[in-house]
């Protein structure tokens, strides 16, 4: 079996959907399970509609029109998703009446995107000669915790998923991104999470490959949207891909690698519009290349929290106390650095309203604390960094030449990456300079 996941960008237009259908047809001898995101842009529109409903305005026109045009162009019945659009409207009316939008309700609202796209894709496949059926992930055992918006799939769900999928005799088109908790409430596993769904399903059915079909030629040497002359990376190790996705390569959701590594299933990232090109293969091991590293990634809008103990408390005690407080509030840390009596943490900047401020207030009860926003982590990734003597020197020389001040430099024990902090405004010059270095400079 193989898992074929189509992202929202691949489901945006009829032309792209036709490519998707061609890909599924070609894979039929390998018994595909299809996983779909919502049609491109839909999740954002649903979030917007929910917020408008909270303010008293229920407006589904754009969402309805987009899907009806798609159905017409695919020559499918408009009635195909009527009950779902009606259900969505009912919930939004409820939100507008009670003027309350809980994370649980938000998850329910956004789930309609994937539920609609699974139905449309299954019908489109069927009408083009590939009998397919839509499957809501939460009906085949995709159970998560109740952390709405960022729910974690529960361990041990794979058996039930494999059993349910095994009993179907048409091509399953499974909703990405959504699940349900133990109480039966719909949950979502974090933005961009359909890749993760695909990997969990891949592990469940012990797929021979997990394919992620998207709008770029694979994992690239840097984010293509920066406008640099980027190249496709034909082969990556699981370790490299984990670092790349963790530090910002949107093309793969961070969770995706975990089930794949556990079951040793190769991942292929490829361009839906160029199905004959191999894209990027991600496997257990990839021999280091002859360049300085493989790729440069960045994570925008992170925060720097500096904690200083005026009473010279030891850095390790300070680190453990401060980290415990952040963890208790649900704040994760990407980089931590210590000096004799101070610690610095880099965290995401987009936590719900006031959470970071609350953390700072709590820490201030004991220490002096500062919070700096609008920062970014830039990260150089590649097995090559392990062996390349002098790589760090060259990286920071190039940054210095561009006037970029790198702070909080960190290299993990795996030596697969070098990460550091810059201002958001320095992302472009830093990534451009490092990308030039990466393409032109051979490792020593
Ligand atoms: P999908 O809709 O298929 O899930 P996403 O938008 O989630 O697609 O991910 C694909 C996008 O990831 C690309 O269009 C690209 O802009 C972005 N991206 C960021 N970094 C990288 C990278 N290193 N390699 C490839 N794509 C990247
Ligand atoms: N539709 C969801 C999102 O836009 C999940 C995904 O696309 O993977 O975040
Ligand atoms: Mg995505």
How much is the average pLDDT? Answer: 94
Going across the major beta sheet, what is the strand order? 3-4-2-1-7-9-10-8
Runs in which pLDDT lies below 50 for 5 or more consecutive residues are none
User: Which range best describes the helical content: under 10%, 10-25%, 25-40%, 40-55%, 55-70% or over 70%?
Assistant: 25-40%
Structural class: alpha/beta
Percentage of residues in DSSP E strands: 15-25%
Biggest sheet record: 8 strands, mixed
Oligomer: single chain
How many β-strand stretches?
16
What overall geometry do the principal axes of the alpha carbons give? globular
In DSSP terms (H or I, runs of 4 or more residues), the helix count works out at: 14
Radius of gyration, in angstroms, nearest whole number: 23 Å
What binds here, in terms of ligands, is:
adenosine-5'-diphosphate, aspartic acid, magnesium ion
Helix and strand element order? EHEHHHHEHEEEHEEHHEEEHEEHEHHEEH
First-to-last CA distance: 42 Å
In short:
The protein has 444 residues and is of the alpha/beta class.
Task: Characterise the protein shown here.
With 444 residues, the chain is α/β, with parallel strands linked by helices. Helices cover 39% and strands 22% of the residues. It contains 14 helices and 16 strands. Strands 3-4-2-1-7-9-10-8 form an eight-stranded mixed β-sheet, with helices on both faces. The longest helix has 25 residues. The chain is globular. The protein binds adenosine-5'-diphosphate (ADP), aspartic acid and magnesium ion.
